Amino acid sequence: MDNFYNSVTLSNILLEKKTHTTGTLRSNRRGNPKEVTTKKLKRGDHIWRRNKNVYVSKWKDKRDVLCLTTKNHPKIIPSKNKYGILKNKPAEIVDYNNCMSGIDRSDQMVSYYSSPRKSARWYKKVLYHMLDITTWNSYFIYKKHFNTNISFKQFRDLLIKNLIRLPMQTTATDLFQIKKKENSST
């Protein structure tokens, strides 16, 4: 579950309805154990506390990761990263990463490669966000059908070049040189 919605109270309610939850958690949520949220950890350290059948844990990787689970007992387990290297991670983090749904991945990718824009109009922001999400969905489908290792940024650049009918070999430097020539001739 996404940290925007997740809380100890919600997880207890869902558990009463026989629904397990695992997800990230915001540190300022009401009901979080203070000894977990305020504890300073070194890289690789792991701390957890239990509230009824809800476990709140904190793990330090590059930065602190606060997690909540009703499914797994918090423990460190070996897990392979995307390069096949074994690293020790909490079971709840491994479970969350394995089950992360499309919208979480989509939000993650959009945050890495969001379109730069400034607008005071809310509907423009929504439109740009929808465009980012649509581009990510197109990338996901393209990757699945063509079984390629192209990055999201490369895909987005190719998509833009196709939409505005630029040759595929065109670079940003070429575009700046064309613009300079246009400006100097006027």
How many helices in DSSP terms?
7
Mean pLDDT: 82
Low-confidence stretches: none
- End-to-end separation in angstroms reads 56 Å
Helix content: 40-55%
Strand content: 15-25%
Q: Which structural class matches the secondary elements?
A: alpha+beta
| Domain unit count | 2
Strand tally is 6
Rounded radius of gyration (Å):
22 Å
What is the spatial order of strands in the main beta sheet?
1-4-3-2
Largest sheet features: 4 strands, antiparallel
N-to-C series of helices and strands: HEHEEEEEHHHHH
Shape: elongated
InterPro entries: PGBD
Protein name: PiggyBac transposable element-derived protein domain-containing protein
Organism: Aphis craccivora (Cowpea aphid)
Domain PiggyBac transposable element-derived protein: 1-139
What does this structure look like?
Residues 1-139 form the PiggyBac transposable element-derived protein domain. InterPro entries: PGBD (IPR029526). This is PiggyBac transposable element-derived protein domain-containing protein. It is a single chain. The mean pLDDT is 82. The strands form two sheets. This protein has a four-stranded antiparallel beta sheet. Strands 5-6 form a two-stranded antiparallel ribbon. The chain is 45% helix and 17% strand. The chain is elongated, with a radius of gyration of 22 Å. The termini are far apart. The longest helix is centred in the C-terminal third of the chain and has 25 residues, at 122-146. Helix 4 packs across helix 5. The chain is an alpha+beta fold and 186 residues long. The chain has helices at residues 8-16, 34-37, 91-99, 102-112, 122-146, 152-163, 172-185; strands at 22-24, 46-51, 54-60, 64-69, 76-80, 86-90. It has two domains: 8-100, no CATH class; 114-171, no CATH class. It contains seven helices and six strands.
